[in-house]
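Researcher: Please predict.
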Amino acid sequence: MEWREQVAREKRAAFADEDYWGRPVPGFGDPEASVYVLGLAPAAHGGNRTGRVFTGDRSGDWLFGAMYRTGFANQPHSVRADDGLELRGAFVGAAVRCAPPANKPLPVERDNCLPYAAEELRLIGPAVVVCLGKFAWDAACVLHSVRPRPAFGHLAEFEVPEGPVLLGSFHPSQQNTFTGRLTEPMLDAVFTRAARIAGDGVMVPRR
């Protein structure tokens, strides 16, 4: 909490004239979504600034680009909360709702925030939970009381008994995208697979 508020006060020079959100960041999207995307945490100068998770940072550019190409979003970029982005058949949230130092939340921060994701999942009841990174994968396992935890990997799948399918993806962080560990076709494949699992006929990949 202290870190997110400090960032909101001090700001980054590029955003010095903007009002930072500086509070916990809720999930957003289609309330009747068949696919729930679980991220790690809001970026200090992304969601913590804009008030919408994955909005205004490079990870979000990759995420929403893939969701646009696979039919889950009406546009490929999101720079602010009122930019017209609409998600179709998908809802995006995070395991941790406050921006953590160095983007590395502690397990206790995850456990304190998970009830918010749990309530979103309860209300939405998705068929698939796309887990962006191992942290989100482990959080989803905690949320669904999965023991022992299945191994995380890109395109890894685990069907929760009487629950959703957990679908793993490398996180679209610069650490992964700059090094080529995650490519656009790899991320597109995750959402194409999610749509197929969910059986949502309205998801038509864009060319």
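Model: The mean pLDDT is 91.
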